[in-house]
Each structure stands twice: as structure tokens, then as C-alpha cells.
Ammonium transporter
Amino acid sequence: MKKFLGALVALGLSGALWAQEASAPAMADAASAVAAVVAASEPAMAVPAPAAASEAAAAAPVAPKFDKGDTAWMMVATLLVILMTVPGLALFYGGLVRAKNMLSVLMQVLVTFSLIVVLWVLYGYSLAFTEGNAFIGGTDRLMLKGIWDSVAGTFAPAATFSKGVVIPEIVFAAFQATFAGITCCLIVGAFAERIKFSAVLAFSAIWFTFSYLPVAHMVWFWMGPDAYTSAAGADALTQKAGLIWQWGALDFAGGTVVHINAAVAGLVGAYMVGKRVGYGRDAIVPHSLPLTMTGAALLWVGWFGFNAGSALEANGFAALAFINTFVATAAAVLAWCAGEALHRGKASMLGAASGAVAGLVAITPACGNVGLGGALVIGVLAGLAGLWGVTVLKKWLGADDSLDVFGVHGVCGILGALLTGVFNSPALGGPSAMGDWVTASMIAPDAYSIGTQFLAQAKAVALTVVWSAVVSYVAFKLVDLTLGLRVTEEEEREGLDIASHGETAYSR
């Protein structure tokens, strides 16, 4: 842990703190929105005179209604994130381990994802996306109660980022479940090939509850745009949001909630589980780069749902997130290959696939918050930063981070979160940030401060790093004291496929 604490200090001194944009809003004052839908659907008890009727119509607020296009897009985006995880992440990780551990990684990803989806429905969604305090939500949506409104005869609405536009809350809940699931699955790559299967599941449940849910609430929960009706009450509404949202940090699709959060947990786990038998002495190489390439390709495809879906509507910001995800990833692939060629004389398939993931990670918090120029710069820097993370930084940290979770997701997540605050500026081609939710107006170009936004991003990154580190340490310690973290040396040498699951990936 001394090395880990030293790494945190170094990250802080180097300014490598990262943050995220608040991109997936929570329910938009669901009770009032449902009431509006109900009022709009109930027959009038009396027919007013034409003049009175027109005056009433002019004065009445427009009731939010579901748009079929937005709803369809969000269901497709949800499916794409599932594709990212199973099979995308599973194959990417599976190809990187030795053949004797292939099935163990596939199992860890599949079963962890399934576990988190169930916990999400039981209590996770409620604690992340209902009103509570600045750190955690409440219990209004335990078991997703209230998602169906029997009085109104319809599903409860969830806010998007546009006034008067909502999607079914049940779709929003499903979309966010995939985020929680893939975040916990990312962590397993840091201690692959030597951890007990039961320990993975126990740790995931604890960490999900005490790290993922609070960070998601702090970054993404707010009262929704329709709640902001007057300047007088705006500050009070903002005080009901998550702490990082109150700070004004931007995270469009999960730079802090997903990537930094998971990467720090993975690094702590790599230290606490210990190094693999033979690490630094024996050759430990990927057993199937074609599978890794296939997984990376599926990750790239699925990431469009991850990033563009975080707009919560089929609109221009979804399109911006889409194209930025496209170009930043391509730029990162080229940058990683170029850096690798300069460093070791050859560009590798593993490097190209890793570069793609590095670009995807870095653009995640920025995808709907920067222009194309900013996305290209972020992509190039991510490719180079990721290469540095898995070579230079990894050696300095001294941890056996098996599949470079921190080197890629941590380093590039921090980079992307910080650069979001820079390239969000209208002066650098960004769309700016929301300045007034009452009037739905953006901060004017001459009023935008890169320094102020960068500071908000850095604060969010710092809080996420410390929060995840503390929770991860406690969670791993609890699991170690109860179940034990690591398999025996004999089981590790035999391979976890046989030792933990009694089967093999390939016939012998």
C-alpha cells in the first residue's frame, strides 16, 4: 500500500486528477411529471367557454410526453452497452490471459455483470438516482417500485436534458444498470489469473454498494430540467443534487463514475491480491490476440451506445458524442502505434487494440462536451498517455496489474476528465456548459472560464480517486478475512479454468 499511496501523491502533484461530466441525469421530479401526464389524460369534468378554454391552454404548462424515437434509441443504446460487456470486454480480457485461465475470466465478467444487474434492481438504482443527500440517494425506488404508476396507467417519466422531454424511467433504469455492470467487470482485469471466484463476487457486491453507487449519485443525480422553473428556487434545487454535480463537473458518459472509479479499485486489488506466480521471471503473454482484437472491436461498436446513449435523447448531442467517439478512438489507435514504433521499432496488434480502448476511455467524459478538434487532440494524447501508463508508470508502481486496468482506464480516464474542462470552452470549439437551467441557456463564450471548469474537473477526479481507494481497501480486506482473496499456488499453476470451474477453454 505504500507504493499505492505514493502513486496517489504523484498523481496529485502531476495534476493527473480527473473528473467527469454529469451526463446521465436522474429522475426529473417524477411525481410532478406523472401528475402532469395524468392531468393531461383525464377527461374534463366540464367544458369551458371557447375563450376561457384558450386562455387556460395558454397558461397551462406543456405536459411531458414520451417520444417513441427517444425511447427506441435508448433501448438500442442499452443493448449496445451489454454488447460491450458480454461478449466485448469478456473476449478482450480473455484473449489477454493465458489459455489455462481463459474461462475463468469469461466467467468473472459474465457472472459479475449478472450479479450487479440484480443488485441494481434490488437497491442500486434507488440509491444512485433518487433524492437523498449530496452523497447517496434514498429508498423510493427499491425493487424499482413506483416505476409503473397504476393510477396514471403509464410508466413514470425520467428526465432527459431538455425541458418537456422525458423517457420511460424503466428504460433509463435499464440503461444505467449496464453502466454499473460493466464498471465492476472492468476491475477483474487487474487481478486476473490468481483470485478466487467467490472473492470476485463478494468484492464486487461490496464495492458496488459503497463506491459505485455513491460516486454515480454524486456525479449524475439532479432534479431534472423541468424542476427549474424560477431563478428564486434554482439554488435550492441544485443543493438537492449530488455533490460533484453541485461543483459543476462535467462527465458525459462516465469518466469518473466508470473508468477512474474502476481503475483505482483495480490497482488497490493488484496490490492486495499480490503478484502472479512467476511474474517478472517467467514469460506471461496473451494466449490469443485475435480474440483480444475481436473484443476490442466489439467494445468500440458497443461504446457508441455507452457514449451517445448518455444524451438520453436522439438529438444533436447524441450525434456529437457519436462522432467524437468515432474520431477520438481512431486518433488514439494511430498515436499508440506511432509511439510504439518509435519506442520499440514495431507497432503491435496488442498496441493497436489497447490504443482503441485508451481513446474510448479518454473521450467518454468529453464526448458530448467537446468539438471535433478537441476530440482529435484528446484521442492523440490518450494513445500516448496509455502507452506511457502500461510501460513506464506500471514499472514505477510495481503492481501486477494483469491487464493494465489502471494504465489504460485510470490514466486515460483522468486525462479525458481534465481535458473536458479545457475543450468544453467555446473558444476551442466546445459547446460550453449549461449556465442557467431555468432558461436553458449555455454559458456565453466571453463568460466561460477554462480555469474554473478545469478546477471543478480536478476536484471531481480527486474525490473519486480517494473514495474508490478507501472503499476498495476496506472491501478487499473484508473479503480476505472471510473468504480469502487468492487461490493456492498449486491451483494457480494448474490454471483457474480447472481449479475454479472444472473445465477448459480448449480441448487438450
Remarks:
- The radius of gyration is 23 Å.
- The CA atoms of residues 389 and 411 lie 6 Å apart.
- Confidence is low (pLDDT under 50) at residues 1-60.
